[in-house]
Write a structure and sequence with these properties.
Layout lengths: L4 H5 L9 H11 L8 H14 L4 H25 L4 E2 L2 E2 L1 H5 L1 H34 L15 H31 L1 H4 L6 H11 L1 H12 L12 H21 L1 H7 L4 H5 L4 H8 L6 H8 L3 H5 L2 H13 L2 H21 L9 H9 L6
Antiparallel strand pairs: 1-2
Helix pairs in contact: 2-4, 2-6, 3-4, 3-10, 3-19, 4-6, 4-10, 6-7, 7-9, 7-10, 9-11, 10-11, 11-18, 14-18, 15-17, 18-19
InterPro entries: Isoprenoid_synthase_dom_sf (IPR008949), Polyprenyl_synt (IPR000092), Polyprenyl_synt_CS (IPR033749)
Family: Belongs to the FPP/GGPP synthase family.
GO molecular function: metal ion binding; prenyltransferase activity
Length: about 350
């Protein structure tokens, strides 16, 4: 058999990615989500309210990049949580195996990064050329922003938020898997919210930071980061709450109280542990039932734990905190110069508060 080794070694160009390698990601990406494409709606609404970018290609490209990051993170997240269902369907790793799914998720992080640092500077340059604005021909001319600057800024934004995501996710996993060891020194509510800001807030911050690269508005992005952070926290608090009370959520996840089954320190669970004595139904589920499989096979104990969380006031605490933070986000929106009574972003923020009381 003749081998053309010279052809093999003479290039560093990447071959097109095999569909077999992409299969776990492709499978997940085509599953309909349960949040009405909230992240893209947020992107569009934030642009309408603050950035005023009128180029739909820019919005679409940023939306696609964020969606790739999000879906890739879900592949890894489902493995880390030993989940069985995602969006009402079997998780990718249950169909394609853990090794291939991990590789596919990690691969798509880099696909998104490569796409961002390639497509976004090119789009930026096209927009400047259409406007007739000159750009610097070299990095030594610092008087004008050039495509290389946009590439560097894009790369820095994405790397920073990937670091935040993994730091937040890592803490979430550590608290869950080390619960026996940290029971005497549980994280505070503030520490939990900081973790959430890293883990969930990143995709909201990405929208703000990437939109700012293209915005004709003089608004400083730093003034919007606290709002993006708060919306990420609100989104996670709402998710924590619905995980324990919403039957539609149960249908998508396949079980009631999935966070409890995983042993996760969600906000109502953490609050309940912090302010209630040991030997409760919740303590039994988290400390005496050793594995997620044990908890899944004991739905009566899960139901008793959820009831205890409710009767202890922790669901009410979570509900009240959600309403408080939604009100704060609306106040922050109202503090910016332009009126926001009819803006889409306000509608999205208000919708976060529309959950049943405990």
């Amino acid at each position: 058999m003749l081998l053309d080794i010279d052809r093999v070694i003479s290039t560093d160009k990447q071959d097109s990615i095999s569909s077999n390698v992409l299969a776990p990601y492709s499978y997940l990406a085509q599953l309909a989500g349960n949040n009405n494409n909230m992240r893209y709606r947020f992107l569009v609404a934030f642009n309408m309210r603050f950035f005023k970018i009128d180029n739909t290609q820019v919005l679409s490209e940023i939306g696609d990049i964020i969606a790739i990051f999000h879906n890739a993170s879900l592949l890894i997240d489902d493995i880390e949580d030993s989940s069985e269902l995602r969006r009402g369907h079997p998780c990718a790793h249950t169909k394609y195996g853990v090794p291939l799914t991990i590789n596919s998720g990690n691969l798509m992080y880099f696909v998104a990064l490569q796409r961002a640092i390639t497509a976004l500077p090119n789009l930026w340059l096209e927009l400047q050329e259409r406007k007739g604005i000159e750009y610097a021909q070299s990095d030594t001319d610092l008087s004008v922003v050039n495509p290389s600057d946009i590439e560097c800024k894009t790369n820095r934004i994405l790397v920073d938020e990937m670091l935040n995501l993994h730091q937040g996710q890592g803490l979430d996993i550590y608290w869950r898997d080390s619960l026996h060891e940290i029971m005497e020194n549980l994280p505070t509510i503030e520490e939990y919210l900081s973790m959430v800001m890293n883990k969930t807030g990143g995709l909201f911050r990405l929208s703000v930071k990437l939109l700012a690269l293209f915005s004709p508005s003089p608004l400083q992005v730093e003034t919007l980061i606290p709002l993006a952070n708060l919306l990420g926290i609100i989104y996670q608090i709402r998710d924590d709450y619905l995980n324990l009370i919403d039957e539609r959520y149960f249908g998508m996840k396949g079980v009631a109280g999935e966070d409890l089954i995983e042993g996760k320190l969600s906000l109502p669970v953490l609050h309940c542990l912090l302010y209630n004595e040991e030997k409760s139904a919740l303590h039994y589920v988290l400390l005496d039932l050793k594995t997620s499989e044990d908890r899944k096979n004991d739905p009566d104990s899960i139901a008793k734990a959820i009831l205890f969380i409710k009767e202890s006031g922790s669901l009410k605490f979570t509900y009240d905190l959600l309403q408080e933070y939604v009100s704060k986000a609306l106040q922050m929106l109202g503090s910016f110069p332009e009126p926001d009574d009819a803006c889409k972003l306000r509608e999205i923020v208000v919708s976060f508060s529309n959950v049943m009381e405990p």
